[in-house]
């Protein structure tokens, strides 16, 4: 015991430094976003292949052929959605356009969104800031700000990309704010997640005089260059009036089951660069 006390006295300043360093690093990591992002980015190159290997072993015993067939069927259905196209009566045409002529006019159907599939190799749902990792990267054409969908609803947005993998900021993240509208009222609002329950979120900015009911669907508004319109976010499961303002408090049951997300679909806006340029011009004025 005497030797232990002597050792502690001799190296007390070093022990205190190490303890304070660990405590300080922990608080920096928990309270700021950038350190978490930097650490995740630095370690993703090492951990992603391991995560992918373990995922593939499990997936092999989980009816892989049938799952792959369903993924391709869902992908084809997504590609054919009307919201993927711009329809006009002018002569604009691109490689993705579908043009039909009649005796009276010509209609141009220009493809705005394209889709591809990916596998989820890492996913968190119980943290304050949740992420997914998918097995597609820059070599597959994936770039930041691409929407990510599950088979049943929206899942998140791509925020960081390497050659073969990408990080997705989940809908279960405090920074995720999705422009939405309620069907059938067609009222605009914003969907945001509240830490605690990975199965629900909240719809904000809906005036209390609107005819909104439990069971109404909440979908993407389309007022975004990331998410196409009409994608299911969830269904209203609870409605209350706020005691502090004239807006409703609407709780929604999320369509995506984040506990069981294995396959996702990546959405590419083919004209995002043009839209971003126009937005920059608006901000400069």
Main attributes?
6-stranded antiparallel β-barrel, Thrombin, subunit H, 3 domains, 6-stranded antiparallel beta barrel, 285 residues, alpha+beta
Can you tell me about this structure?
- By secondary structure, this protein is an alpha+beta fold.
- The chain contains five helices and 15 strands.
- It has a six-stranded antiparallel beta barrel with strand order 4-5-8-7-6-15. A six-stranded antiparallel beta barrel has the order 9-10-11-14-13-12. The chain has a three-stranded antiparallel β-sheet with strand order 1-3-2, with no helix packed on it.
- The longest helix is centred in the first third of the chain and has 28 residues, at 33-60.
- The model is unreliable at 88-98 (pLDDT under 50).
